[in-house]
Amino acid sequence: MFTTIESFISEYQMESAKTQQLLDTLTDESLKQTQADGYRPLGYIAWHLVHAERGMLYGTGLAFESAPLVSEPPAQADMIADAFRSTTENILSAVRTQLTDEKLQDVVPMFGQSWTISYTLYSYFKHEIHHRGQLTILMRQAGLPVIGAYGPSKEEWVAFGRPAPAI
């Protein structure tokens, strides 16, 4: 969990930049990629990342702008990437101006439980990482390159001039 606003900002800037890289790689066609019949397509998961704050961060009392919530995600990948970029900037600005280190220990109702704002920020952060993992699998299935968030991806090994690790 986070004990200072700056620790959240520092970590979230790094993690959201990785998510942004993936979203910037999406194509309109790739948004239709599913794991299997009956599962949410890549576009839905990507759009969920833009709106996940409505379930967590709004519950902390933070006020910021984000793209309008619609029942269907946009069919244009660049709209999703731009909306994530804008929402992320607005979240970081809101955290900087509306929270203090002391306020991180305030308790808010969240999903029928009582969470500190610190834990809520931590859970929001982890929630994005969870869905980023889903994105990378669906992106691979759609034939798109992925980034190595915590180590080189197969494509990055090649770009480094090294052979990709053997299977």
TrEMBL record:
Protein name: Damage-inducible protein DinB
Domain of life from the UniProt record: Bacteria
Key word Metal-binding present: yes
InterPro entries on file: DinB, DinB/YfiT-like
Keywords carried by this UniProt record: Metal-binding
Pfam families named in the record: DinB
The family this protein is said to belong to: Belongs to the DinB family.
Key word Transmembrane present: no
